[in-house]
Backbone:
C-alpha cells in the first residue's frame, strides 16, 4: 500500500518537474533531468542524511524508470495534460502525504528523535521540489507557497505524537499521510497561509550578518 | 568551552538566516527553514563528507531547537533586534571562528590531510550561509564579501601549522578560533579585501567551457 | 592512463570554473572556490551517493592542489589564456569523457544497475559544472547547452551495453570515454541539439504542481 503510494508520488512529482522544464523551454534532456530530480531528489537527500548509500532509488531502479516515463509523457503530451491540471494538483497532495509518511518512518527507523523525524518528513516530501526550483533558479516554492511544507511538517508532528502514544507503525504512517493530505487539500481549497513580517528589513543592505555591504 | 561556542555560533547563524528570510518577506515557515539551514547547514555538509551519518545535528537535537528559537525570536522581534545589528556582526565573527575550529578538528579526527582540514574548516564555517543564500537565490555572500571565508581558511591553515608543529589539540582549536575571529574583526574594522580581476571576461558569451553559446 | 585523464579533466574543469569567476568579477578566493568546486564537485557528489566517505578527493589531495593551481593560473594570466579558448573547449570535451568513464566504472563497482551507472557517468561529468553555475546563480549550463550532458549519458549507455556484452573493463572505459568525447566534439562542430517544446506553459502562473499562485 505505502509502496504503491510511493510509486504514485514519484510519478506525480516527476510530472511536476517536467512541466517546470517545459515552462523554461528546456530541451528533452532538461525535461528528463528535472523529472528525475523532482521525483527522487527528496528521497535521495533523506537517504544521504541517514547514511543509506547508495540511496534506495539506485537499488530499485523502477523509481528512475517511472520518472523517465513521466518526463517523456509530459514532453510528448504537455498540451493534452494541461486541462487536467487541477487533478495533477490533487495527485500532488497525495504524493506529498505519502512522501512525508515514508520520510518520517525512515527517520524513526534510523533512530532519530522527534525534531529529526519531522525534518525527514519535510525533506522527503519537499526536497525534490527544492532541487527542481534551484536548478531553474527560482526561489524554492516551498519557501513561498502557502501551506505546502507546513502540511508535511504538521503531518510529521502527528506521526511523532501517535508514535509517542504507542500506536502501531501502520497507524503512524496512516496518520501522517492523512493529516498532510487533508491539510494540503484544505489549504488549496480555502487558501490557508502562515503569517509573515513585511517591511522590516531594518537597514537597507544590512539584512544579514555575512554581507555588511549588501 | 568549544561546545558552548558551538551552541553560540549556531544561534547567531540562525539569527542571520532568519533576518535574511524577513528581508525576502517569507512566511513563518520560511523564517524557520532559513534559520535551521543557516545554523546547521555547514555542520551537516561536513558530517556528510566525513561519513558521519546521521549528522551530529540529528543526534543532539538541541541544535535544531536552538535554531528554531532563534528563528522565532527574529520573527517576533525583528524590529527591536535591528539596532543591535553591530553586535550581531561581532557575534557572527565569534561563530565563524568556533565553526572553523570545530570543522578543522573533525577533519583532522577523520584522517584528512592539510588541504582537507582547511576545506572542512571553511565549509563548516560558511556552508550554512551558502545554503541560505542559494535558497533565496542570491550569489553566496561568501564569494563576494571581503574576508569572510578567507578568515576561516587562514584559521584552518594555522590549525594545520600548529598541529604539524606538535601542539596539543586545545592549542590547535584555540589558534584556529582566534586567528579566524581576529582576521574577521580586522576585516570588518579596516575593510580588508582580496584582489580581483576586472573587465577580463575575454569574449562575451564564451566565459566558460560548457556554454559556448552563452 | 585513466588516472592521467582524470587529473587532466580536473585541471581543465578547474580552468572553466575559474574563468566563470573572473566573468563575475569575484575576488581571488572566489576564483579558487569555483575552480575547486568545478574540478572536484562531480566526483564528490558521486562518492557521497556511493557511500565512499570521505570522498576520494580528500584521500588524494593532489586533486585539490591541481584545482588551486588551475585557479591561480587563470587569476594571474586570464588575458593570455583567452586566445586559447577553442583549445580549452576541446580539452573540456576530453575531461567530460574521462569523468563519464570513471563515474560509470565506480557506479558499476558499487553494484548499481544500468540506470544508476548512466546517472553516475552523467553526474560525475557534469556535477562540478552544475555546482559552479548554481554558486553564481546561473541556470546550469547542462540544462541549456546543446549536447553536453547528453554526450555523457550516451557514453554511459554504451558503457552499460558493452559491459552487458561481457567486454573487459578497459574496453568499457575506453568505449564510454570515446563515445562521449566524439559526440561532444561533433556537437561543438555541427551544433547538434535535442528537441524542445516551446510556448506550451499551459496556464500562466500554474506551470507546476507546488506553486499554484505563481
Residues:
Amino acid at each position: 500500500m505505502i509502496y504503491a503510494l510511493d510509486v504514485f508520488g514519484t510519478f506525480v512529482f516527476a510530472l511536476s518537474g517536467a512541466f517546470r522544464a517545459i515552462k523554461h523551454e528546456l530541451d528533452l534532456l532538461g525535461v528528463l533531468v528535472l523529472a528525475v530530480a523532482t521525483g527522487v531528489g527528496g528521497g535521495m537527500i533523506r537517504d544521504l542524511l541517514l547514511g543509506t548509500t547508495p540511496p534506495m532509488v539506485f537499488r530499485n531502479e523502477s523509481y528512475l524508470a517511472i520518472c523517465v516515463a513521466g518526463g517523456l509523457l509530459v514532453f510528448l503530451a504537455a498540451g493534452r495534460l494541461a486541462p487536467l491540471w487541477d487533478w495533477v494538483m490533487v495527485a500532488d497532495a497525495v504524493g506529498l502525504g505519502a512522501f512525508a509518511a515514508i520520510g518520517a518512518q525512515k527517520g524513526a527507523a534510523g533512530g532519530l528523535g522527534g525534531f529529526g523525524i519531522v525534518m525527514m518528513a519535510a525533506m522527503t516530501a519537499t526536497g525534490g521540489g527544492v532541487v527542481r526550483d534551484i536548478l531553474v533558479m527560482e526561489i524554492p516554492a516551498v519557501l513561498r507557497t502557502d501551506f505546502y511544507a507546513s502540511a508535511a511538517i504538521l503531518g510529521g508532528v502527528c506521526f511523532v505524537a501517535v508514535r509517542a502514544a504507542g500506536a502501531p507503525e501502520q497507524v503512524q504512517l496512516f496518520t501522517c499521510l492523512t493529516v498532510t493530505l487533508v491539510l494540503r487539500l484544505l489549504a488549496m481549497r480555502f487558501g490557508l497561509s502562515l503569517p509573515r513580517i513585511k517591511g522590516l528589513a531594518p537597514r537597507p543592505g544590512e539584512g544579514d550578518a555575512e554581507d555588511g555591504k549588501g
User: Anything to note?
Assistant: Chain A has one domain: 2-190.
